[in-house]
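Before relying on records like the one below, remember that each one covers exactly one chain. Contacts with other chains, cofactors or solvent are not represented anywhere in the record.
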Amino acid sequence: MCSDVGQQSFRLSIREILFVIGFIAVAIGSLASHKRMALPMICVISIAFVAMVIRAAVAGPRDRLFAIGFVISVCLYLASTVYIGDHEYLQSQGELPTSKFLQSLIQPPYGIRGDIILKRADTARSLMPLGHLLIATACGYCGGKYAVWVYIRTRR
């Protein structure tokens, strides 16, 4: 019986699978396009976060679960990046594994000319916040799914 409860809570609809795949594609595209898509993607993620906060406050009990898990997870991740220090959003010197991962995506493997370094630093300033927001959104999605799973599991 316990396995049925776990399977019911992790069933994904086709709409949800397509949304996740589409979001991942847009996220990769926005990181690859550098500054052109960084600001619009940051705005979209910010609007989605505000929508989740509103949903956590006014939605019904079942819908509220996912939103609360999402908001708590996003806030905890972003708070950890801010608490550790400002250098998490720079081109180098990040301490979190996610910062190191994002920095490795942004940094060029070769090239030491001054104009290239300045251009890469400008790119890092616009992409590091976007990268951290994308990771925070992924943490929020997992946190929301976990909140629903815990609720269903404890109700049985």
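Helices lie at 2-9, 14-32, 35-58, 61-84, 97-106, 114-155.
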